[in-house]
Amino acid sequence: MDLISMKLFVSIARTQNITRTAQEFYMTQPVVSRRMQELENLLGFKLFSRRNHGVILTEEGEELAPVFEKAITLIDQEISRIKTRLQDRTRTVSIAAITPATNIFLPSIIGEFSSRHPDIRVDVQRLVPSKIMEELLSGTYDIYISCGPDLPISGEWNSCPVRSDPVGLIVRDSEPVSSPEEAISLLKRSRVYLIPMEDSPATTRDSLDILSLLGMEQIQKTELRPIESILFNIASGMGVAILPDHIAPLDAFGLKFVSLGLDRSMCMSMVWRKDAPPEVQAFAQLLKARI
């Protein structure tokens, strides 16, 4: 005996019309009739008899209808209770993070956190810093990881530095460049790829400031997104970029980082609400401890 057949019978008892019940359950009339025949066969007695414009319950059907109705109510209540419990058990920590975080350290942190808290799901969305700023202001995510200068925060947020990477030149691994002097020489005769200012203001300002410091404001510059497109073009010998080390897994693109001999670095920070639920606080504390 299945729950759908029980509900169909209760509906027929209420409407005294198989066609109306079929419409209510988005079924055809023959399907409902067949299921009622199967229910009667299972029970061993008739539940209703046909009449000109519908059906009429038998005495046994009259007795059984309120019993089925109570049973269905109890079953539905229990199913709802179980679903609510499972939803409460499946808690989620949502993270918005820039590319370096998603590529370099978040995978291992998430793995360790998941082994400690298997009942908590971690969802990560890779976004550009400007989009992270928008999402932070709307409170869409639990944790935000971005360039420190690109994270406007107030007293309701916790904040801590995650890591600091030197800013230098990203070039092809095959380039015969290893010293700052060689890097600057290559930079002078290369196209420089920039992340669009609207995507990552702090990173792009750093790149432009370094070009200004080196007296290369007039050098050929091209804005490009996403970061993978910049790295692909560099790997194809079409230019270079001034970016933080560990901006991405450079080895995978056949690239390397070369210092420009400047004391410049990019600080990555993490913010989360002070009143965040325990699972968010636990993830933030683990990340702080591991980075």
Written description of the protein model:
Helix 1 (3-15) crosses helix 3 and helix 2 crosses helix 3. The protein starts with a helix and ends with a helix. It contains eleven helices and eleven strands. It is an alpha/beta fold and 291 residues long. Strand 3 (91-97), helix 5 and strand 4 form a beta-alpha-beta unit. The model has no long low-confidence stretch (mean pLDDT 89). Strands 3, 4, 5, 6, 7, 8, 9, 10 and 11 form a nine-stranded mixed beta sheet that branches. A two-stranded antiparallel sheet has the order 1-2.
Task: Provide a compact summary of the structure.
This protein is of the alpha/beta class. 49% of the residues lie in helices and 23% in strands. It has helices spanning 3-15, 18-24, 29-43, 59-89, 99-116, 129-138, 180-188, 201-213, 227-235, 250-253, 278-290, and strands spanning 48-51, 54-57, 91-97, 120-126, 143-147, 157-172, 192-194, 221-223, 240-244, 255-258, 265-273.
Instruction: Bin the helical content.
Output: 40-55%
How many strands appear in the DSSP assignment?
11
Shape: elongated
Structural class: alpha/beta
Poorly predicted residue ranges: none
User: How many domains comprise the coordinates?
Assistant: 3
**What is the annotated CATH architecture of the largest domain?**
3-Layer(aba) Sandwich
- Classified in CATH, the superfamily of the largest domain is Periplasmic binding protein-like II
Largest sheet: 9 strands, mixed
Radius of gyration: 32 Å
Question: Tally the helices: what do you get?
Answer: 11
CATH topology of the largest domain: D-Maltodextrin-Binding Protein, domain 2
CATH class of the largest domain, anyone? Alpha Beta
